[in-house]
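Postdoc handover notes: sequence design on the structure in folder B. Input tokens:
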């Protein structure tokens, strides 16, 4: 990655992180309700019976209510667990599952760990992002876990990134290691990109 691209990514992420820190609790709660409805509708549209999803942090558009709903509906939900080698393990979400602080301070499930290939069986991947542009290019938070996971899958299912409405932008800085997503879910809408490879 060139120094210019790396610098542009760092600056963009810092700006987005600061904007998220300024959100009121009311705005965060409203976003979680919207994301819950949008993701539920997406699962129904795709007929997904098994999905992967992340546990949102306090400033991300909330996914935890969606996860609870999906588990209650009998949908198998795999939650990511970060590893020090840059790969993700997975754990099956349960109605009363405990959450701990994983690597990088991210919320992660407590439970039996499945290996990185467990995600190959899901019908839909729901992943975090800092921003997504109109071509489906996703800007992550810089650790590469999801780009590496998506790039290594032989038959990748639809992949949707979750962001706030203002984080769907015209263009994000990217390099060859960055992966495009099928679509993006915000608190008010779901967009599927026509040029998506998935």
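Designed sequence:
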């Amino acid at each position: 990655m060139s120094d210019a691209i790396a610098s542009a990514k760092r600056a963009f992420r810092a700006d987005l992180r600061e904007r998220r820190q300024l959100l009121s609790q009311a705005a965060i709660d409203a976003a979680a309700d919207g994301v819950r409805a949008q993701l539920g509708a997406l699962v129904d549209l795709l007929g997904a019976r098994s999905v992967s999803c992340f546990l949102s942090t306090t400033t991300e558009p909330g996914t935890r209510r969606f996860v609870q709903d999906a588990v209650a509906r009998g949908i198998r939900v795999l939650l990511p667990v970060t590893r020090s080698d840059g790969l993700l393990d997975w754990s099956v979400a349960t109605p009363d599952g405990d959450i701990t602080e994983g690597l990088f301070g991210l919320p992660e499930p407590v439970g039996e760990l499945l290996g990185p290939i467990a995600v190959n069986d899901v019908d839909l991947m729901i992943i975090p992002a800092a921003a997504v542009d109109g071509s489906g290019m996703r800007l992550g938070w810089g650790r590469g876990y999801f780009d590496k996971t998506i790039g290594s899958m032989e038959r990748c299912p639809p992949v949707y990134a979750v962001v706030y409405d203002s984080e769907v932008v015209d263009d994000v800085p990217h390099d060859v290691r960055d992966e495009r997503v099928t679509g993006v879910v915000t608190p008010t809408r779901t967009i599927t990109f026509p040029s998506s490879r998935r």
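Context for whoever picks this up: Helices lie at 3-21, 25-46, 64-72, 145-152. Don't rerun without checking with the PI first.
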